[in-house]
Specification:
By secondary structure, the protein is α/β, with parallel strands linked by helices. It has one domain: Vaccinia Virus protein VP39 (Rossmann fold). It contains seven helices and seven strands, in the order αββββαβααβαααβ. A seven-stranded mixed beta sheet has the order 3-2-1-4-5-7-6, with helices on both faces. α2 links the parallel β4 and β5. α3 runs parallel beside α5. The radius of gyration is 17 Å and the shape is globular.
Length: about 230
């Protein structure tokens, strides 16, 4: 669906800058699809469970993001998309540290960021209830902990270059999520992604503006920058 495209398209764009065709990529907290819905080259996806058959391009690994079963620098790039907000605040730095430990070049994080985004999801939660519709599990989980802030990366040690980018404005996110409550809209969005993915990508980029619902954080080892 389009909501997944909004969060993965900018991450995959960053991935293209830091990984080649034969690079090893890890998607933390991937679920059964992860980047595999849009990334056709092989990658490793890890999660604590897989409730459906994993994407064809994914090699699934059962693992906690807080204790990854991989050696130091065993991947070229690590992705963690919309994972951080599901982790208790006291464990978020540990997740980041694990991602940085196992990556050779870059780590790409994307997550709903800040108090305004948190309030918006509370509004969305109330909208589901007002319409008498089942609240998605991911949205229920969003209610449990305050969303991470940009300052989350203040502890990152020297040797890393950090860039932060807006992803999906608050207004657009709410509009999109309300539309995706209805099957005809979901069908239309999926058809558009299949028929004209390039055009959809360009349109979505126009909504990557402030104030944003989500932010993309790109951490690159300075020693890997030519």
């Amino acid at each position: 669906m389009l909501s997944r495209a909004t969060r993965y398209f900018p991450i995959l764009e960053e991935l293209s800058h830091h990984a080649g065709r034969n690079s090893r990529v890890l998607d933390i907290g991937s679920g059964a699809l992860g980047a595999g819905e849009f990334l056709k080259t092989p990658f490793v996806g890890c999660d604590i469970s897989f409730t459906s058959r994993p994407a064809k391009s994914m090699m699934p690994v059962l693992s906690s993001a807080l204790q990854l079963p991989f050696a130091d620098r065993s991947f070229d790039v690590v992705i963690a998309s919309d994972v951080m907000e599901h982790v208790p605040p006291e464990q978020r730095e540990r997740l980041i540290a694990e991602a940085l430990r196992v990556t050779r070049t870059a780590a790409l994080f994307g997550f709903p960021c800040g108090h305004e985004a948190f309030l918006l999801d509370h509004k969305l939660f109330a909208e589901y209830q007002a319409r008498g519709m089942p609240v998605p599990i991911w949205l229920e989980e969003h209610m449990r902990h305050p969303f991470p802030e940009s300052q989350l990366f203040a502890f990152v040690p020297r040797g890393w270059q950090l860039v932060s980018k807006a992803n999906e404005s608050l207004r657009f996110h709410y509009w999109l999520m309300c539309r995706e409550m209805w099957r005809p809209w979901r069908y239309a969005f999926r058809l558009a992604l299949l028929a004209v993915p390039g055009a959809v990508r360009r349109i979505l980029r126009r909504f990557d503006e402030e104030p944003s619902y989500r932010r993309i954080f790109v951490l690159v080892r300075e020693e890997s920058i030519a």
